[in-house]
Amino acid sequence: MKLTFIALLSLISSSLFAQEINKRNIDNYLSYVEDNTGGIGSVSIFKNGKEVYNRSFGQGKLKSVTYNRDTKYQIASVTKMVTAILIMKLIEDGKLTLTTKLADFYPEISNSKKITIKNLLGHTSGLGNFAIRDGAIWVIDKVTEQQILDEIKKQGVSFEPNEKVAYSNSAYILLRTIIERKYQQPYNKVVEQEITKPLHLKNFASVESHPSNIFKSYKFSGNWTEIKDIEYTNVIGVGDIASTTKDLNTLITKLFQYRILKKETLELMQPIPGKEDWGRGLALFPYDENIFFGHSGDVLGSHARLIYNPKDNIAISYATNGERIPTNLFVENIVNILYNKAFSLPEIK
User: Domain range for residue 202?
Assistant: First the structure.
């Protein structure tokens, strides 16, 4: 049964963000999810650079699981946004360009003389998804870097650079290795040096930094049951980072405050509304007239979304390790509450 939820501040135009968010309405929504065993996760909201809302929900239904405010979630492909930021820092420093060819690093890969850094960032390279082999996910258990590279070579390309857009995990594995070559450090150390320490993030780390206090992944079959997720050392730079939602919002807020990259560099990352859905490490998330930029992430049991609206200086981060409501719908409802719009509470089956 679908229930209609009407915002109390209906007289405020939906195109304008209220100065004070309606925390009660967000709480009511998350309580509905929690009470109906609709998910496990956390939501953080920043406004003008400050956290104005943070709530976790559903964890109390997990048996024999301890957690606290510093317990992290696997953020999956939101990691790609971090990788793209690090590539753009190299470009700012004159160590790469958007037109640098993949052949400078991997001449043995198909079309490497045509594929550019820009193609890799924007999913226009034609490269595929190394994580899927013979129609199945094969990175659940530990594999070697050479095995991954061999699979990328074997898959080759499915189209010419710039011919179309097709999401590519393989492209971001290669970007991560390029970062490591240029910095002459492993990815986790570069993340610490360029992201974690400068932004004073306390709960944000790549897998090789051995973060602890991380939620496991769960599925619901009458109750929440732990499931085996992918092996995160197989997806470094692609989907391996663990974080709290607060640290995620700090990251994207500082990014749009030009505390990580220059304004002109960040603009290169952003997709052009009306022309692109994907930029160079940032995707477009339109909710009616309200335009957000950011990234989503999905692995077998964990899901995340991190988005920012530059017009209203709003950041929203959502992470779940037990999903029954699709991420798109869950976050859309949060946005509707923030902008005082009517919406229907989701059916939970």
Answer: 4-344
